[in-house]
Design goal:
single chain; alpha/beta; 6-stranded mixed beta sheet
């Protein structure tokens, strides 16, 4: 549900932005162009960048994030460029935003609000609109400067002020809280439906593409499946999960899913809201972590994606690193360095087809070697163990015998030792579900 601010309303094409980035000891710049990614985000949101400002600090100024000297310099830059908005590549407190707006007399956004705004404009399905709306409301609620009086829809608006998460600043806090609760209930229903949908694929080989935004996941899906899904050289071109059939010769069918791209410092509210959309990744038998190997910050992007995967409880999912866009790499040492750090990675080019056969071979090997089919007997009273199995295994059969629950499931081999516990027994099954070994653990 869109929200409208009391800030000046401008169409996206009229937004003139000044970008600001602050380097701190615990958050240093990682490239020679610290504003490259923020510039891409601003362009994706529809802004025209008219100025930039950088500062290195030992600590954050509690009132304005940057020092008073930089605030004065920022005000002069805004006036000189006739800017409409200042966008920080850092997260600001509500008080810092308020003081900076008072000093510059223009709208001030931080990185999280900009990302939320982009998601708002990219959301197309009912599900993704609900998720973005919830994330925006939860992010905006503590940042409001006025009491709200009513909920309403408002189309248009400038960066950070439009999309399916926006509400007017006058919206009553109590009604906003009710709206948040309603959204959570509706998203929970979506997630349950999605879980049932994904559970219906337990007999299938499921693989999900994950990775930093604009790493080439959609292009790779098209190259592997011929799906013809939208693939743009643009941040967050994909918000909704798409699943297509991937037929691998001499192996069979694989269900390949393309998911929303991740980014550094992805807002927590957004990650939480999009858990339903990312259900395929959470339940996939194999994750293909796609990396733009031509990007100088590839290692940092890998770490950022791994951080989000951990937040989604996907850190222990079998994962194959895919170094994409090798055709764009001008220095072969970059690929060598990445392969040295990640020896099991596969170097490919979704655009030219280079390495795709090796990728198919590695996927087949991972799907056949990393999973075991097992029968696990657990005391029915051991809720913790049952919940752990439900989260980490694909259960395809369940029955109760005396005081125990017997589960037949597919699960990663490396997780089997973690099932051990009082009264728990495991026996491995072949593809026909015939016991082939004595109870273990």
């Amino acid at each position: 549900m869109p929200f409208e601010s009391n800030r000046e309303q401008l169409s996206v094409k009229q937004e003139r932005a000044v970008l600001v980035s602050v380097s701190l000891p615990d958050r240093p710049w990682v490239t020679t162009d610290p504003l490259e990614e923020l510039h891409g985000l601003a362009a994706t949101a529809g802004a025209t960048v008219v100025g930039t400002l950088l500062q290195k600090r030992h600590d954050i100024h509690p009132g304005t994030y940057v020092g008073q000297g930089k605030v004065d310099e920022l005000k002069q830059l805004v006036e000189a460029t006739d800017a409409d908005v200042v966008i920080f590549d850092n997260d600001l407190t509500p008080g810092q935003v308020r003081r900076l707006e008072q000093a510059t007399d223009v709208k001030v956004l931080d990185r999280s609000e900009l990302i939320l705004d982009i998601f708002a404009t990219r959301a197309r399905t009912h599900e993704s609109r609900l998720q973005v709306e919830l994330a925006q409301l939860e992010y905006a609620l503590p940042r409001l400067r006025k009491m709200w009086t009513h909920l309403s829809r408002q189309a248009g608006g400038g960066i950070g002020l439009r999309g399916p998460g926006e509400t007017q600043l006058e919206v009553d806090r109590r009604l906003a809280g009710n709206r948040i609760r309603d959204l959570k209930d509706r998203i929970a229903a979506v997630q349950k439906r999605k879980q049932r949908e994904v559970a219906g694929r337990q007999g299938e080989h499921t693989v999900s593409l994950v990775g930093y935004t604009n790493a080439g996941k959609s292009t790779l899906m098209n190259a592997l499946t011929g799906a013809g899904v939208l693939a743009k050289d643009q941040l967050f071109s994909t918000l909704d999960t798409r699943t297509r059939q991937w037929h691998i010769r001499d192996f069979g069918r694989v269900l390949l899913s393309d998911t929303v791209g991740f980014i550094r410092d992805l807002p927590h509210h957004l990650v939480a809201s999009f858990k339903a959309t990312l259900e395929e990744a959470r339940q996939a038998r194999l994750l293909l972590h796609v990396v733009d190997a031509s990007n100088p910050t590839a290692e940092d992007q890998i770490k950022s994606v791994n951080s989000v995967l951990a937040e989604l409880d996907c850190a222990e999912r079998p994962t194959l690193l895919v170094l994409n866009k090798v055709d764009r790499v001008t220095d072969p040492a970059m690929i060598t360095s990445l392969l040295n750090h990640h020896p099991r990675a596969v170097a490919v080019s979704a655009a030219t087809g280079q390495g795709l056969q090796e990728l198919r071979d590695e996927v087949v090997a991972a799907l056949t070697d990393q999973y075991a089919t097992a029968e696990i007997r657990i005391p029915a009273a051991d809720g913790r163990a049952l919940a752990w199995i439900g989260a980490h295994a694909d259960v395809f059969h369940q029955q109760f015998i005396e005081d125990d629950v017997v589960l037949r499931c597919h699960l990663p081999k490396h997780l089997i030792p973690r099932i051990a516990g009082p009264g728990v027994s495991v026996r491995f099954l072949d593809e026909s579900a015939t016991p082939v070994s004595a109870p273990g653990l």
